[in-house]
Amino acid sequence: MTHRFLVLAAVLLCSCSAIAAGCSTNDGPGSDLTTTAPPATTMRKATSTVASPTTQRPMVTSTEVPPTTEASGPQVYAWDAGLDMSGVIVQVSEPQLDGGLSDTERLFLDEGYRVFYVSVTIKNNSNTPFAYSPANFLLSDSQGQVFKVGWLCSEPVLESGTVQVGRTVKGAVPFEMPLDSEPAFIDYFPTYELIGTPEDLAGTWGG
Predict the structure, then answer these.
(1) Does residue 54 belong to any structural domain of this protein?
(2) pLDDT (tens digit, 9 = 90+) per residue, 1-37?
(3) Number of domain units in the chain
(4) Which of 105, 143, 148, 154 has the fewest CB atoms within 10 Å of its CB?
(5) Which ranges in the chain belong to alpha helices (H)?
């Protein structure tokens, strides 16, 4: 009895000593390890800074405004002045009243009309033959009415033809006009007969 009491007392004493000394009932080598949490990782969104290409403006060295060119038609020549078309010289005289018509010729003239004519000279100083016609000439009066070439004339008329290089042709170009009309200008259309556009007009005589 006494022996059992001593054993029980020894066990209790041992237990108390173990608690007081901080004895652990966990066994294994890792029981006293301290687990340290890994440091927090801050994730940053990657950003790319790409320099945008530089757009270089063209350098303006000067701001030049082209000079204003006034629209101008063919030159108006004085009577008998020469129009030079690449070596072909055309001259037109001042219109003259044709008073030399015969009585027979006057029978073909419309009542209330009279005949004016201009003397035309064409000299070919170019290197190619030049074709011409009296129908290339138009007469305008002071009121703007336009008259085509006629056929009644007391002077030798200019016939259609070709003037060769180095040659000259002359002749009268007649126009029939009303009695109340006065000749003012002669227009020359070298590539058209009886009708033409302003772009075809080579020159004008008058003044």
Answers:
(1) no
(2) 444 444 444 444 544 444 444 444 444 444 443 344 4
(3) 1
(4) 143
(5) 2-20, 103-106
